[in-house]
Write a structure and sequence with these properties.
Radius of gyration: 25 Å
Number of domains: 2
Strand content: 15-25%
Helix content: 25-40%
Shape: elongated
CATH superfamily of the largest domain: P-loop containing nucleotide triphosphate hydrolases
Oligomer: single chain
Order of helices and strands: HEEEHEEHEHHHEHEHEEHHHHEEH
């Protein structure tokens, strides 16, 4: 039975979000769209361990326009030069503060956004600038789980219609019929198959996210991009959804790119972890290497913020909470050199003037830092901290101003 009070309370929300939800639903449905006759792939399926997705120098700059003629005056550099690979069967976790470009990156590799520069290769094929017709054969293999379970489902469509839309638009006829397959998918994600005719407002947040997962898995994709799939859910529900994603990967052989800002969630599900800061990758390594010996100061600061159940735990290990000063700079006008130098306690003049490349300092451990933690210094000749140098310069300016003031006062005396 439905809950009349819940239904009445949900009607205004359903009406107010109908347009945005319909757009999200349309995007997800279009992402699955392809006629049965057009399903011809030129490349073979990537075997476990082989490179499934390769991203090279990926950029996305959003233009800022002004005036009646919409003249471009600046650009928001949301993603500004990413390089990484994703291997078949693995889970790549992407972490970073809000506004660092994680979600934009996810929408770029699923081609929901057009990249400004760079290449995206899926199974060896460049899909960076394919049009709608060119992308349709690939939409089955690359799916996305959206962040908000409340707006990613159309409130006017029952669950059966939402999950079955990919089959209808693709022209795919599952064995046993569409309804039977949809009910099987609902059961796979932990929902009652009898909920086929229910509407999204009759489900909790965790159940809605499961519906989104069922829709993404309908056509058995090879790559699933999950954009903060548990950030809008309660902690207990987060664990259920994370365990579900983990179980489905083992059963179906899925490859994940999971975007999140919760390092405890990422640690649970990821094989490798990429740390982003202001549109750039600052560290990329396997899970154990990052948590045992993070090299980039920003990664170390993020890890120090992870709550520990025992409040004496970090003190016993000699670890202190690292408090970063200031806010994340604007991607409209990012700092010169290393983008983290304005908040880094190890920054020197070279950090301000030269951007560090993403280098492999250990096997499988890439870092973009002139003065990495837990490793030999890459620029040992540059020893003067930027904070000390700037403080010294400020002190000299103050002394100079005081001397000039005394001179002026002395001249004015009889």
């Amino acid at each position: 039975m439905t809950n009349p009070e819940g239904a009445d309370a949900a009607e205004p929300a359903a009406d107010s979000t109908a347009d945005s939800a319909a757009q999200e639903d349309a995007v997800a449905s279009e992402a699955n769209a392809e006629s049965a006759a057009a399903v011809t792939m030129t490349s073979e399926d990537a075997a476990p361990g082989e490179i499934l997705l390769r991203v090279t120098d990926l950029k996305k700059h959003f233009p800022v326009t002004k005036g009646v003629l919409k003249r471009q005056v600046a650009a928001v550099k949301a993603v500004d030069g990413l390089d990484f690979d994703v291997r078949a069967g693995e889970t790549l976790g992407v972490v970073g503060e809000s506004g660092c470009g994680k979600s934009t990156m996810g929408r770029l590799i699923t081609r929901l956004l057009e990249p400004t520069h760079g290449t995206i290769e899926f199974e060896g094929r460049d899909i960076s600038h394919l049009g709608t017709a060119g992308m349709r054969p690939l939409r089955r293999d690359v799916q996305m789980i959206f962040q908000d379970p409340y707006s990613s489902l159309n409130p006017r469509h029952p669950v059966g219609a939402i999950v079955s839309a990919p089959f209808k638009l693709q022209g795919v006829r599952p064995e046993g019929g569409v309804k039977k397959e949809v009910q099987r998918l609902l059961e796979v994600v932990g929902l009652n198959p009898e909920h086929y005719n229910r509407y999204p407002h009759e489900f909790s947040g965790g159940q809605r996210q499961r519906i989104g997962i069922a829709r993404a898995l309908a056509l058995k994709p090879k790559l699933v991009v999950a954009d903060e799939p548990v950030s809008a859910l309660d902690v207990s529900i987060q664990a259920q959804v994370v365990n579900l994603l983990d179980d489905l990967q083992g059963e179906l052989g899925l490859t994940y790119v999971i975007i999140a800002h919760d390092l405890s969630v990422i640690r649970h599900v990821s094989d490798r972890i990429a740390v982003m800061y202001l549109g750039k990758l600052v560290e990329l390594t396997d899970r154990q290497s990052l948590y045992d010996g993070a090299m980039h100061p920003y990664s170390k600061a993020l890890l120090s913020a992870v709550p520990v159940p025992d409040p004496r735990g970090k003190a016993q290990r000699g670890e202190d909470r690292i408090l970063l000063q200031g806010d994340v700079p604007s991607p409209l006008n990012p700092p010169s050199g290393c983008r983290f130098h304005t908040r880094c306690w190890k920054a020197t003049r070279v950090c301000k003037n030269e951007e560090p490349p993403l280098l492999q300092l250990r096997t499988g451990h890439q870092v973009a830092c002139h003065h990495p933690e837990n490793h030999e210094d890459q620029r040992p000749e540059d020893t003067e901290l930027l904070s000390v140098a700037e403080k010294t310069a400020d002190e000299l300016d103050s002394e100079r101003s005081a001397i000039e003031q005394r001179d002026r006062e002395a001249v004015g005396k009889p």
